[in-house]
Specification:
- This protein folds into two domains: 44 residues; 98 residues, Diaminopimelate Epimerase, Chain A, domain 1 (Roll).
- It is 18% helix and 37% strand.
- It has three helices and nine strands.
- The protein is of the alpha+beta class.
- A six-stranded mixed beta sheet has the order 4-5-6-7-8-9. The protein has a three-stranded antiparallel beta sheet with strand order 1-2-3.
Length: 154
């Protein structure tokens, strides 16, 4: 795994619990680059995942040029999605209602789509309003999961 937001938070908790450092801000080098972990006074841990990468080759995603969304043929159905890397590849599809989103139907098909040569996590995003959204995620190699830190960032 190139990057995992929730895993980074678990790492920070481990370091804190084992008293491996007294620092409240930790910089960690990962396979995808440096991330910053902040252990707050209330015990909560936040992660600065860095800026999203949108260049297709960086995701990786096969496209002739960078765009805000891409039309992808999934078994004869054209699906509009955004492609982004947050240290690992994500495809994000906007849906009207996450409760009726085709997570189990489209998730594995997009995960293994040839335009994503390293496979991809697939987020089904419902925008509630300008400050709230809901997300269901099909994670590559795991299926639908209850939470995805990098997916929330994507």
């Amino acid at each position: 795994v190139e990057q995992c937001g929730n895993g980074a938070r678990c790492f920070a908790r481990f370091v804190l619990d084992k008293r491996l450092t007294a620092k409240r801000q930790i910089r960690v080098e990962t396979k995808s680059g440096v991330i910053e972990l902040d252990i707050r006074s209330d015990g909560q841990i936040s992660v600065n995942m860095g800026a999203p990468r949108l260049v297709p080759a960086d995701i990786p995603f096969q496209a002739t040029e960078q765009a805000s969304s891409y039309a992808v043929d999934v078994d004869g159905q054209i699906v509009d999605l955004a492609a982004v890397s947050m240290g690992n590849p994500h495809a994000v599809l906007r849906v009207n209602d996450i409760n009726n989103a085709p997570v189990h139907e489209l998730g594995p098909k997009i995960e293994h789509h040839p335009r994503f040569p390293a496979r991809v996590n697939v987020g089904f995003l419902q925008v509630i309003d300008r400050s709230r959204a809901q997300l269901r995620v099909w994670e590559r190699g795991a299926g639908e999961t209850q939470a995805c830190g990098t997916g929330a960032c994507a």
